[in-house]
Amino acid sequence: MSGVSEKSELFDYRAFVALIEGFEQDYKTDINTETYFGFPIEPLFNIEKSLLTTGQKNVAYFSMEFGIAPSIYNSFRLTRPMSKENQFYSHEVFSNYWLCDYLFKVKTDKMLDIPIYGGGLGVLAGDAVKSSADLGFSLVGVGILWNKGYFKQNFWYKHGQVPEELTWDPATYPGLVPLKNIITIETKEGPVHLRIWKYYVYSHDKKYACPIILLDSNLEQNAPSFRKLTDQLYRSDEVWWKIYQRLILGVGGVKALESLGYSIERYHLNEGHAAFALAEKYIQLGKIEEFKKYQGRFTYTCHTPVAAGHDRFSIHDVKRILTDKYAQAACALGKETENSDQINLTYMCLNNCQKVNAVAVKHGEITRLQFPNFSSKIKSITNGIHTHTWLSASFEELFDRYASTLGDWRKNPENLKKISELKGDEKFRNDIFEAHQKNKNILIETLKRWDLKTDILTIGWARRIAGYKRPALIFQNVAEILKIAYEIGPLQIVMSGKAHPNDDIGSAHIEEILDHIDQLNEHRKVIKVLILENYDTYFGKLLTNSVDVWLNNPLPPFEASGTSGMKAILNGVIQVSTLDGWVVEAEKDDIGWIFGYRHSGARIGHEMDLRLNEDSQALYKVLNEVTKLYYQTYWKGNLDAQSPWIDKMIHCVGKSSFFNTQRMMREYRQVMWET
Ligand SMILES: *Cc1c(COP(=O)(O)O)cnc(C)c1O
Does the structure show a pLDDT above 90 at 101? Predict the structure, then answer.
């Protein structure tokens, strides 16, 4: 996998625009010989040329979702008017400050994230592609253009979350272009035709780029029911949708790469959703011996110990949709046991991909317990985050100011470990706190109607709402949290998160949180609680950058990795966490407080056994200490720069030298792709 650098001959401007559908009418003002939506176009010719070249270790990275976050990083410019649907003007809030919610919204006026992700898995995929571009890897992402995104979240008091359809306009989304290529998948119910769209992810220095190709079934030549197949990410009300969506990603993905003429040496399946890519190659190669030789090209990342994260379909349902040869391939590759009447996509990947990885050291241990027959091939590569996307402006400025110690941290985020050399520097200790306060002020400014204060301890919790993540743990015993707020010091809590529309437990948690918030109205002088609608990468960045403490309380060992805490530590935000996922690898580094149930031994346990009482007690105990130390450190605008609080902030930033996708992608290359 060599870097992509020399000037292209195979691929020039004319060849580039000739692939774009409707170039003359729609894209001519945004794409020219020099620029692509305001960015230099040369890197695009280079990567296209590289992907067309045989003999290079080109990688195709398949993922159901990609969270690219152009609203916060590398935003393209569009000369023509963008549809209003692609703009997000305001956000609603639910708080214990009733009147405010009724009167005001959070003004955002930001571009909608390209809405093709649901949560952490997609954000990881987006960050992985960004770091691939930073490193000059020859990699193409393969995904789906979700015409209605994931969903739009509304809170209706007493009803919790009410999901609504999201609409957006791919045709005026900056940086996204439709190609002329149409591919077709045959099924028992007729052909499914798919358009290929392309988006480019640039490196932070804009010298390199990696494309993501996105499949779209919303074409006139498709039957009406097929046009909706690529509407909603993770639509799961009927198994019919699930099978088709996976067929499109796996089989459609391989066909799309071929239709573009890309020469792919490694097919990386980010989660089992793309497993049908194996079936496509199995059919193409005809002979089992040929396919066996080809398996070395397939690699797979398993992301979750939670049962719902592993797709299983009855052979009966599969045969209803897949043509005989695909159904036969699925049976040959994806049965859990010989006599099983189910196809299991996790097993399809485990059986047939030469290399498999889990997403943190602890998760590797759990995955080997879950799938003992495959334990020898399951490696661990710990997740990360893309430094340049998640770093706040004030910390960027801080790191630059101390460049004599930190060196070229932009190129090598690993350099951030040198921050420990600044621990004894009184000025730096003041500066890092000040940089944090700037971020906190941005949060306060964004939520200004809710009147948050810069000198009140602020706790953040935001992520996908799912049972094992225990979203309402902090409210398990409200009297305890009130005791802290009244007796030690006031608190501000800011939350956000979506539950999958078919996840009843997740939705119930949202109702529970809204109820607790409502009941805290009379205590709003000492504890203010806000929950923001429609969590996305924009709010993900705002919150992880700005709160004082990031709360992460999944039930161990069900959080495979988690990444939001990594965004927080990069910005000096202290962790209060259970011991799970990535946190296990930072336990000894004093990045905050670790509490609650510890998993060990050979049994995984049960994800419904939530241990809410014990772990909430442990959480309150820790929050007591956290609150005390915070107000000893910072009281009415006076900072004790010698406080251990500042040590912890510094340890956090130091640890982010490891928890980034640049290190992660280097490991993928070494461990998964190059051997
Ligand atoms: C980072 C991120 C996540 C992942 O959060 P976890 O705590 O790892 O579950 C989910 N959603 C969004 C929008 C994010 O930015």
Answer: no
